[in-house]
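Internal tracking record. Fields below are filled automatically when a chain is submitted to the structure queue. Please do not edit lines marked as system-generated. If the sequence contains nonstandard residues, flag them in the REMARKS field before resubmitting.
Queue: standard
Priority: normal
Entity type: single polypeptide chain
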Amino acid sequence: MYTATAQRPTAFGITEFGAQVSPRVATTSAQSTSPRLKITRRGRLVLGTLVAVPLVIGAVAVGMNAGGAVANSSSSHTSFDYETIASGETLWHLAETVAPTADPRDVIADIMRLNGLETASVVPGQRIAIPTQYS
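SYSTEM-GENERATED OUTPUT FOLLOWS
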């Protein structure tokens, strides 16, 4: 049997000479095989969650968009009174004119909501719809 000497580290970092290594051990250590991947139960749970969460979010998003696109066959027809903004006039002035007994802040909020205004600034000549409760 063929034997070879090799260096082997000891516990204190000092190498020990003269260790006997058989050729059979040397060939099996040179032929390393990659280990199979084993996924534990916890790993399968985490992997399944990582895959399922985006799918659920996508399904909810699609469901919300589809629900908002439903057409209504009955049309509600509501007519509003319109006021045209004069030069120098503000929504505050308009609110005091159309509802003198109501709080102008509430009237302005209702006018902005009805007309889709993001700010309370208006320009001369702009037509503003007045909510029906103030007409």
